[in-house]
Every structure is written in structure tokens, then in C-alpha cells.
Design a protein that fits this description.
Elements (H helix, E strand, L loop, with lengths): L29 H8 L5 H15 L9 E4 L4 H12 L4 E6 L6 H12 L3 E5 L3 H15 L4 H17 L4 E4 L3 H5 L3 H4 L6 H7 L10 H5 L14 H7 L2 E4 H4 L4 H10 L24 H12 L3 H11 L5 H11 L6 E2 L2 E2 H6 L5 H11 L31
Parallel strand pairs: 1-2, 2-3, 4-5
Antiparallel strand pairs: 6-7
Helix pairs in contact: 3-13, 15-16
């Protein structure tokens, strides 16, 4: 059977299969080009712009919060909170409850509070959430659809309800990992950005009532406020990473000095011990990314490290071959069967869904067109040995 091959960025190991990315004529991916552009940014000017924004939004009457910080409790939201406090802001930290919170995730959420801030945690109906998670896993191959939607909708809904105009988000993912040029250079997170890049894929909340037989009132926390509501309050969402050089590793180091807890080893399916420590379902989400596009969290972090001179490309290729795309037997020490039980799914059904959403153009097939797996239930990519 004739094999097709994937083009990779010539500097990092990001493949052309990554959504919303383009490898230019000179062989660089959007993530590498965006990182290069940081060398010509006037960071002092960006800092002054940040000061102008926060001074405009500081509550002069001292009866309200100056801003909202969306907080998962991870390294980045801990860093965002520390940064806000350094600039004299009085933030309200908002956590949209994760689906299957880990022990270390709870510990890090509690640590956010200890930094000296008011904190609010909003949980959606867990019975409905489990149904949505199973539904989206079955229909679009994403167990974390609801997770990614509410991360963005809940803080904005609270901003409208409490009339707190400024929301300080963390990184601009399009700039950090590669995306459309207009989005990678923008400082604003708004409704359009949410609908196009907020992790909701091809499924809109407005589709769920009919698809799942759920009353739309039950989905209020999954919906973004209307333009009229946003305009009435003057909600502005900005990226902290636009105003200050963004670096997840340094963020983790700063957060750790302020009580943030890392994992005791590199997280399963990753090469670091300080990321995605809260949601036990995250490994499944990353595995389906691998099945669809042929890369996962290992590729992401290796590429980030290469750009910053922390890893050589040849070493990243070796690491990706060794650690990338592994079947998600466990995450943060919890077995897959326990994680699947949360959404009323068994391993047999899960494996069928894995096969259904696998892009067969990216993996080796036998003469009958069936996927080939190794002894550990891992798929074999068609061209791991052809990254040049």
C-alpha cells in the first residue's frame, strides 16, 4: 500500500495536519513565525498599554472588583493572579469547575485563594455534564467540549452579571502554538474569537437542545452573553501574554514559588510535570487529537521548547517517537476504566470510538485496511521515521 507523508515545520516538529496552521514557503510553521516576531516587539510599550488599560478599569469607588481572572488553578492562572496583584489590582478569580477534578487540581485551586484574592467557583449540573461529555465524545470525538466551552463562557457571564468590564486571560494560543495571523497578533478575546477558536469545534450550544432533548434553560452556563449584554457592561477581554513575554515553564517556576504544586513526575502523555494537572479526562482529549491529527501534547511541548532553545530538534524527534501517541491507560495515576466510568462508558465502547475517529491516512494499515497496533495497543504512524 502506498504511503503518504506529512510535512513538518523545519525548525520544530509541528505537522501540517494541525488545524488552523500553515507551513510557509520557507518551511516554518505559524507558531515559530509568531515566536520570531516577538524579537521585534516593543515590550516596554506593551507594558505601558497594559497599565493604561488597567488604570481605566480600576474601580475608583473601591466597591467593585477591578477585573476578573479565569482560574483553573493551573500554573498559568496562578501566574496571572500573581501578576494582577503585583500591579495593585483587586481581581475576582473565577473557576469553571472541571469535570473530574484531581486531588492536585483541588490543592492548586485552594492555593489561588491563599494568594489573597476573592474566588468564585461555578459548577454546572453534573448529571447533564456527564451526558454532554459522552455525547460529544461519540459525535465529535471530544470528551472535553463542555470543559472548553465553560472555561470561556462562565467568566464572561459573571462579568456581565456583576458588571466587571475587564477580563484578563492568559496566553493567546494562536500566538503561542500557531494560528491565523489576525488572531495570533490580537490582544482581544471576544465573542467571535470564542465561536471560532474557543475549542467548540463544529458543535454549537444551540445545537444541543434538539440533539440531546435538553431544555435550553439547562444550558445557560454553556452560552456566551449576547452582544447587547456585553456592550451594556463594556466587557473587554485581553491576553496577558500580549503585554508580557509568555513562557509556560517560567510561569510554572513563578507559580511554584507561590505555593503551586507540580506532579511528582512528568504527566502521562506529556514531557513536563506542571501542566494539565486538574482534569483527569484531559489525557483522553489529547489522545483523540493524536488520532485525528497525528500529534499530541508531546509534540506541542517539544515545539515550544525548541523555539526557546531548550531542546534540539533531533532530540525532540526522538522524544516524540518514544513518548507521543501512547494509549491512555491512565492519567495522574488514575486508570482509564475509572475515568470512563464517570461518563457511563466502558473500555470496549471507548476503543470503538477511538477507531471511528482515527484518521487512517496518518497510520499504518494492514492489506485489508485495518489499523495496525503494537503490543501495547498503540497505533503506528506512517512516517515517524521521515521527519526531516
Amino acid at each position: 500500500m502506498e504511503e503518504s507523508y506529512i510535512k513538518y515545520c523545519k525548525r520544530c516538529i509541528t505537522p501540517e495536519t494541525k488545524p488552523d496552521i500553515r507551513i510557509s514557503i520557507n518551511g516554518l510553521c505559524a507558531g515559530c513565525r509568531s515566536y520570531d516576531d516577538r524579537n521585534i516587539i516593543d515590550w516596554d510599550k506593551r507594558k505601558k498599554e497594559f497599565l493604561t488599560i488597567i488604570n481605566k478599569h480600576k474601580d475608583k469607588n473601591n466597591i467593585n472588583y477591578d477585573c476578573i481572572i479565569p482560574c483553573s488553578g493551573g500554573k498559568d492562572s496562578t501566574y496571572q493572579t500573581i501578576k494582577a496583584l503585583e500591579f495593585g489590582l483587586n481581581p475576582l478569580c473565577i473557576t469553571a469547575s472541571t469535570d473530574m477534578l484531581s486531588e492536585i487540581g483541588r490543592k492548586n485551586i485552594e492555593n489561588i485563594k491563599k494568594l489573597g484574592v476573592d474566588h468564585m467557583e461555578v459548577s454546572t449540573d453534573p448529571k447533564l455534564r456527564r451526558k454532554i461529555n459522552l455525547f460529544t465524545l461519540e459525535t465529535i470525538g471530544d470528551i472535553s467540549w463542555a470543559e472548553h466551552v465553560t472555561i470561556f463562557t462562565i467568566p464572561v457571564r459573571i462579568a456581565v452579571a456583576m458588571r466587571i468590564p475587564l477580563i484578563i486571560w492568559g496566553e493567546n494560543a494562536s500566538n503561542e502554538h500557531g494560528g491565523p495571523v489576525n488572531d495570533s497578533t490580537s490582544n482581544i478575546f471576544d465573542r467571535r474569537r470564542f465561536e471560532e477558536l474557543g475549542g467548540i469545534g463544529n458543535l454549537r450550544t444551540s445545537d444541543l437542545p434538539d440533539l440531546m432533548g435538553v431544555h435550553e434553560k439547562k444550558l445557560i452556563q454553556y452560552t456566551y452573553p449576547s452582544e447587547a449584554e456585553l456592550k451594556d457592561v463594556g466587557v473587554t477581554g485581553i491576553f496577558l501574554g500580549y503585554h508580557f513575554p509568555w513562557d509556560g515553564k517560567i510561569n510554572a517556576e513563578i507559580a511554584s514559588k507561590h505555593g503551586f504544586t507540580t506532579y511528582h513526575k512528568n504527566v502521562e502523555g506529556s514531557i513536563v510535570n506542571y501542566e494539565n494537572l486538574d482534569n483527569l479526562q484531559m489525557r483522553i482529549h489529547d489522545y483523540f487529537k493524536f488520532l485525528k491529527y497525528g500529534f499530541d501534547r508531546v509534540t506541542d511541548w517539544c515545539s515550544v521548547y525548541i523555539r526557546r532553545g531548550r531542546m534540539k530538534r533531533e532530540d525532540a524527534i526522538a522524544i516524540a517517537r518514544e513518548k507521543g501517541g501512547k494509549y491512555p491507560e491512565e492519567y495522574l495515576g488514575v486508570e482509564l476504566s475509572e475515568i470512563l466510568k464517570e461518563i457511563d462508558c466502558d473500555k470496549q465502547k471507548f476503543d470503538k470510538l477511538c477507531d471511528h475517529f482515527t484518521n487512517k491516512k496518518l497510520f499504518k494499515l494492514d492489506p485489508s485496511g485495518n489499523l495496525i497496533r503494537d503490543n501495547h495497543n498503540n497505533l503506528i504512524k506512517i512516517n515517524y521515521d521521515n521527519i526531516t
